[in-house]
Amino acid sequence: MPLVPAGLSMLPDLLKRTDGLPPLTTAVVHPCDSPSLTAAMAARDRGLIEPVLIGPEARLRSVADEAGLSLAGLRIESTPHSHASAACGVELVRRAEAEALMKGSLHTDELMRAVVARDSGLRTARRVSHVFVMIVPSYERLLLVTDAAVNIEPCLEEKVDIVQNAIDLAHALGIPSPRVALLSAVETVTSKLRSTIDAAALCKMADRGQITGGLLDGPLAFDNAVSREAARTKGIVSEVAGRADILVTPDLESGNILAKQLEYFASALAGGIVLGARVPIMLSSRADSLESRVLSCGVAVLFHAHQAAATAVVQR
Predict the structure, then answer these.
(1) Which of 26, 138, 234, 306 gives 20 to 30 Å between its CA and that of 185?
(2) Which of 123, 152, 167 is the last residue of a domain?
(3) Residues 130 and 267 occupy one common structural domain
(4) What angle do CA 96, 291, 136 make, to 5 degrees?
(5) Which residues pair with 129 in a beta bridge?
(6) 315 contacts: CB under 8 Å, gap ≥ 6
(7) Considering the chain, what is the average pLDDT of its residues?
(8) 285 in a structural domain
(9) How deeply is 158 buried, as exposed, middle or buried, from its count of CB atoms within 10 A (0-12, 13-18, 19+)?
(10) pLDDT digits 0-9 by tens, 203-244
(11) Would the pTM count as exceeding 0.85?
């Protein structure tokens, strides 16, 4: 079965950008089913990651045997259960023995609970948030959707970090000045919809340098954000409308629904990554395809390389 579905030519283009970059030493947390273990090995074979497998060793080897995979030469950290696997993965990062985390077959909240633990986790000054990197066959550019997996009802201050995380990721993916559409149901500001007030405030915060590196506009309805014709019809004059690179949704529910609609109704390919922690976190759904999981790994490699380059510049 081919790795790249027909019509998704942006995937090989994106993965080609990882050529020449070293693989990320990645703590693969509890890959105790065939899809998650197969994805880790496929990403290893593509040169994206160097996996450290974390989970009950006997179970990992049983899954590998059933899937026809060889674990020869791989480091395995044996743990009794998924909670311990999450804690072990975080600890490997804290000891600088891993440069990234990859979710296996455990629940997202198990992994993220260990990541955001105040004393033993991987917190930074930045709010942790999730970004879908989506390849939509009918859209001419990569599309980033945030936040659809971590922040349930983010306040204005949390949205600042959500937007900045997505902009930073866009830079890492080769989009130097991403267009950021702040979504709502309407294009005008009204006190009846908090999302419109937040959008207006975020735009002004960008004007004042509180958010940097992107071009923001909002509130914008979804059609105006991605369709120039819809924007023209509604008389919207905007550098963002009709060609957004980043869609910022009002809350997790709307973001999750939007991303899954694009995936299942528009045949989009979606990779998921969590930013704002000490290292990138590849966060896949249990229903994700092999292509989606490999895409997440490629995105993590590019983001890590971008961070390392920025750090090197600061230290000069």
Answers:
(1) 138
(2) 123
(3) yes
(4) 115
(5) 275
(6) none
(7) 93
(8) no
(9) middle
(10) 999 999 999 999 999 999 999 999 999 999 999 999 999 999
(11) yes
Q: Are 222 and 183 in contact (CB under 8 A)?
A: yes
Instruction: Examine residue 116 and state whether it is found in any structural domain, yes or no.
Output: yes
pLDDT, tens digit, for every residue of 165-194? 999 999 999 999 999 999 999 999 999 999
Structure tokens at 261: 């609609």
Number of structural domains (the chain) is 2
Distance linking the first and last C-alpha atoms of the chain:
47
Which structure tokens are listed for 98?
């891993």
Residue 28 corresponds to which tokens in the numbers above? 């693969």
Q: Tell me, yes or no, whether 298 lies in a domain.
A: no
Rg, the chain, Cα only? 19
**Distance from C-alpha of 178 to C-alpha of 243, rounded to nearest angstrom:** 10
Same domain membership, residue 156 and residue 269: yes
Backbone angles phi, psi at 211, to 5 degrees: -130, 130
Cα distances (angstroms) measured from residue 57 to each of 31, 74, 75, 175, 220? 11, 12, 11, 41, 50
What tokens were used for 304? 């890590």
Q: Roughly what angle, to the nearest 10 degrees, separates helices 57-67 and 34-45? A: 80
Residue 32's alpha-carbon distances to 4, 80, 104, 170, in angstroms, are 25, 12, 7, 32
Percent of the chain exceeding pLDDT 90 equals 89
| Inside any domain, residue 311 | no
